[in-house]
Amino acid sequence: MGSIKANESKTDMTPDRSAAVPQAVAGSSPSEGVSRPGAPLWATLIATFFGIGRMRPGPGTWGSAATVLLWAVLAHWLTPSLRTPVAYALAILVTLIGIPAATQVARSSGSKDPQFVVIDEVAGQLIALIGAPLAWKTFLAGFIFFRAFDIVKPPPVRQLERLPEGAGIVLDDVAAGIYSFLGMQLLLHFGVLSK
Asked: pTM (2 decimals)?
């Protein structure tokens, strides 16, 4: 009896943390795509690019591929003179919205750079495609360039990753996108890709 009473009083004095922080789905962790409550819906939708970041395997690759496909569709509806300014505007907009969204989701997930946050890949991939002709070869080249620079992370890409919260999540991919853009422009200049 005495031992039961002691255990009860210990339990009563210990705060119930399970009510304050709901548990993730069994067998999963925040880096596997389940974020704790706390991130606003807008931030989760933007950061995961409307759920694409939850696709497996390689959510970053899915985010890049979706961006290429969506840009291909959108660019076909634009006049040639509007394509480059719209690509610039979208890349800037995605970056500016992506940083606070990634910050909110990273905080709620408890991870510095959750894999399911792919808005950074969207921003970088858009930059890689700025000024690229609408052809499957240029889309494929832009995709390969961006994925390669995003994975290898040459300086200063890796250094930008160390910036705090959403800035570090997004700006390293922006830098990888700039490298990709420069590579694409070189291929176009030397005629490796047709203009």
From this structure: 0.80
